[in-house]
Amino acid sequence: MAVGVLALQGSFNEHIAALKRVGVKGVQIRKPEQLQSVSALIIPGGESTTMAKLAEYHNLFPALREFVKMGKPVWGTCAGLIFLAEKAIGQKTGGQELIGGLDCTVHRNFFGSQIQSFEAEIPIPEIAAKEGGPPSFRGVFIRAPGILEVGPEVQVLADVPAPSTVGSLEDNAGPEKKVIVAVRQGNLLATAFHPELTADTRWHSYFLKMVNETSEEASSSTSLSSEELSSSDPSKYDLPIFQQ
């Protein structure tokens, strides 16, 4: 298995190192044709506007959108989350191009500027159930986005209390307002924080299980099992008999 890591800018080397720790080769992706050699893709954290400009320069957006539509697993961290969102707010003047596919609305700098970066213990029941380890994860948030809304097919994997200084969630019910920071929708995984900057590899292991699941589904949908062959009409598979 080879997992591609978009290597335009940001923490792509850290993702490749984390993949190596879980026994998988990470491949740097900078050109559209390189996507053909990988079974999954990680879009790392970084400066999302800069990454978008570089992706546009290298004509990567059509190939990235096709990669997502094909159902191949894609994981976006921080800036990668913004790339995968169907809608992003709080962008710079003129906005930026998105890949889309993830039914959510993302606020680009929800948690504030670079000096407001922080670490927090995040409850991760789904990840802990599948990967073991402690029930929480030490999330590293660097000028991080937040997920404001999700569609019905999006599974929320983690959320954190919203900062009291943020007014984006005024309409939310309940005394404690929370913001979503990790989701999954089918073949797409997204985190607002940076698992690649920690020694905890459970998110990478979880993503690799998504890759394996997708590969198994693809192979089962394109080939008949021995049971299906034996239970089918034999005349469909027998060679014709020629009468003399």
TrEMBL record:
Keywords on record: Glutamine amidotransferase, Hydrolase, Lyase
EC code(s) of this entry: 3.5.1.2
Origin: domain of life: Eukaryota
Location of the region described as Disordered in the Swiss-Prot/TrEMBL record: 216-244
Reaction(s) catalysed by this chain's protein: L-glutamine + H2O = L-glutamate + NH4(+)
Biological processes, Gene Ontology terms: pyridoxal phosphate biosynthetic process; pyridoxine metabolic process
Bias (Low complexity) ranges: 217-232
GO cellular component, one term: glutaminase complex
SUPFAM superfamilies to which the protein is assigned, alphabetical: Class I glutamine amidotransferase-like (SSF52317)
Active site: C78, H194, E196
Pfam families: SNO (PF01174)
GO molecular function: glutaminase activity; lyase activity
Binding-site list for L-glutamine: G46, E47, S48, R108, I142, R143
Family: Belongs to the glutaminase PdxT/SNO family.
Protein name: glutaminase
The organism of origin for this protein: Buddleja alternifolia
